[in-house]
């Protein structure tokens, strides 16, 4: 079997080019991931943050109604509530 030096040099060049390609891929994979949000997503994120900062229960309103109930000054107009409920249902059907 005869070993041809030109074939060896071609093989070495092939390995060298593959090695440089592998290094290039490794260098690209070292970059950090990046996320870019659309303007709408940024506005939504700000609105969500603002909504989360507001308490779920308005304690001042609860205390006011509680005091009015205890003093007998809080009256519920059942006719008005029922009328609004029916109006809301009719609006949903449209």
Give the strand content: under 5%
Based on Cα principal axes, name the global outline.
rod-shaped
Structural category: mainly alpha
Radius of gyration: 36 Å
SSE string: HHHH
Q: What separation lies between the terminal Cα atoms? A: 90 Å
Name the assembly state: single chain
Tally of alpha and pi helices = 4
Residues in helix, %: over 70%
Mean pLDDT value:
84
- Low-pLDDT stretches are none
* Sheet with the most strands, sense and barrel status: none
Please report the total strand number as a whole number: 0
Layout of helices and strands:
Layout: H1 5-29, H2 39-53, H3 59-71, H4 78-93
Tell me what the structure shows.
The protein is mainly alpha-helical and 94 residues long. It is 73% helix and 0% strand. It is rod-shaped and about 110 Å long. It starts with a helix and ends with a helix.
Key terms for this structure?
single chain, 4 helices, 94 residues
């Amino acid at each position: 079997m005869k070993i041809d030096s030109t074939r060896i040099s071609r093989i070495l060049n092939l390995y060298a080019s593959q090695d440089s390609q592998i290094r290039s891929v490794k260098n690209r994979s070292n970059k950090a991931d990046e996320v870019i949000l659309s303007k709408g997503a940024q506005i939504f994120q700000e609105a969500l943050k603002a909504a989360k900062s507001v308490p779920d229960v308005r304690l001042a309103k609860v205390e006011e109604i509680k005091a009015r109930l205890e003093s007998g000054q809080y009256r519920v107009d059942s006719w008005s509530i029922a009328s609004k409920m029916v109006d809301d249902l009719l609006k949903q059907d449209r």
